[in-house]
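Researcher: Go.
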Amino acid sequence: MSDDSGSTPTALLLSGDLFFTSKITGTAHAVGLQMDVRASIPEEIPGPAAGGYRLVIIDLAQPSIAPAEVIARLSAADRPHVIAYGSHVATATLQAARDAGCDEVLPRSRFSAELAVILRHATESASGG
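Model: Structure:
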């Protein structure tokens, strides 16, 4: 489900939820953001200075994706912004994402409601705005 346009994606979505992924990628396209979707954590997650991702989004409902493992694969010197989202009732999971070092941890409902703004901010950051 990766973008095949030939240019480097500017956001990475780690999720196996096909329905919600479709909403996220559609919104990303509408705001001019390229999205690379993976159901598992890639071996390397390059940051923006290396021509990689400016934003990493983690679906906390995906059991195979541990926020601490994602954070561990990021370069401290060239780290993209990391947002995790999950069920508002999964308080321990949300806290674990905060403890792992995610920049923002949001309930899924808020992430969904603010999705266009979140992605637009990543697009503006990518263009230096």
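Model: The first helix runs from residue 18 to 30.
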